[in-house]
Amino acid sequence: MPKGIPGLDLLLDGGLLRGNSLLLEGPPGSGKSTFAVRILHEGVIRYKEPGLLITFEEFPKQVYAEAMSYGVDLRLMEDAGKLRLVWTTPQRILEGFTGKNNLIDKIILELGVRRLVIDSITHFKRITSSDVGLRELLLKILNNLKLRGINAILVKELEKQHDQTIAFEEYLVDASIRVYNAPVPGGENRRFLEVRKTRGQHHISGKHPFWLGGSGLAVYPRLSPANLPRVS
Prior knowledge:
By secondary structure, the protein is α/β, with parallel strands linked by helices. The chain contains 8 helices and 9 strands. The protein has a 9-stranded mixed β-sheet, with helices on both faces. The two termini are 29 Å apart.
């Protein structure tokens, strides 16, 4: 399933498989939330795939303004019935995935949701602080969405720019991307992404620059000879 972001689909061998999940993690300011919103936007605009954005931290007004600064009009897509923004608590979302209320189920059925973003799963620690509890919680959510053929995009906060720890979430998801906003020679910061894992498909390794701006988002793959098609 193509994501619709120039360069990213090349890195992911055409995109994610239908129903597969993606972990997007990075430190503050790395662009992970904007990246996730852009995936929803491209799903609606390019592929007619309705999306659901679940946020725990920012007020909807902030989410709308931030998205608009990068050329994404969430309100317009909501008015067209192609996207829904839900600002709620982790507890209520968990209840929606375990049958205790029908909030999520109702929206998924009403819109025909194909892409779903949770920003961020770090807030599930408000429900349980144990890794075992968090693992079980996320498995319930991911299994529920996979059975429906919905691509889940989970956003996760990293405290450190160069944290090389492999967290348990990476074992649960089908694909994992880490984003960076790091200094380069000359003093300025540049954004990079790294595909750390894909399940059931190939991907191109390494760190690849990406750009965020008012006209969109683009990834610039750094290819090696092994990534290029063979000439017979």
